[in-house]
Amino acid sequence: MKKVIMLLAGLLAMPLSAQELSAELSQIQQRWAEIQYQLPAPEREKAFEVLAADTEAFVGRHPDQAEPLIWQGIVLSTYAGAKGGLGALSLVKRARASLEAALEVNPQALEGSAYTSLGSLYYQVPGWPLGFGDDDKARRYLQKALAINPEGIDANYFFGDFLVEQGEPERARIYLEKALAAPPRTGREVADAGRRQDAKTRLSDL
């Protein structure tokens, strides 16, 4: 009860627009985690399509904030992963544009999540002539994310995953194990559980 009262007090102290942004952001994050980690794979593409429309409206309501742009980029990139094929390329380009726009507004927002997400795009998207994939850019962005949030679950997971792809298994293990040991995030329990499972799977691949 005490924690609930403290949370409510904190929310009441925030300006109304900040309260609205925080509440909407939480809803987007929770729905993303449910789709990514709890829905059967055949149902994810349609669900992400709906969530992508929601995030576009979210950006429209808060045009001067980095957080909605970051989550638009995250949703579009995972929507692309669920969609697959050439149709996904336009989605990842839109995701990159949203994340780059977020960096222009506030590169520190959400503990450097724009850097994490851009880095993951650059190593997972095919390179020229099909896409814009670039391992050097991926490494730079992921290292910037770690500089901002060295203990973060996503920053460590994606750098570890990148290092696996780069053929650096021993270094990868360090970051994947850090992802497993990362502190929990309030309200992100489903996402944290899913990401820990991702890290365990990657570690077992090693």
Summarize the structure.
The chain is an all-alpha fold and 206 residues long.
What does this structure look like?
The protein has 206 residues and is mainly alpha-helical. It has two domains: 127 residues, Serine Threonine Protein Phosphatase 5, Tetratricopeptide repeat, CATH 1.25.40; 57 residues, no CATH class. The protein is globular.
Largest sheet: none
Under CATH, the topology of the largest domain can be stated as: Serine Threonine Protein Phosphatase 5, Tetratricopeptide repeat
Number of helices: 10
Overall, the morphology is: globular
The pLDDT mean sits at: 92
Low-confidence parts: 1-16
Task: Calculate the terminal CA-CA distance, rounded to whole Å.
Answer: 44 Å
From the coordinates shown, what is the CATH architecture of the largest domain? Alpha Horseshoe
Tally of domains: 2
Work out the number of β strands: 0
- Helix and strand pattern: HHHHHHHHHH
Beta-strand share of residues? under 5%
**Helical residue percent?**
over 70%
Structural class: mainly alpha
- Rg from alpha-carbon coordinates: 17 Å
What is the CATH class name of the largest domain?
A: Mainly Alpha
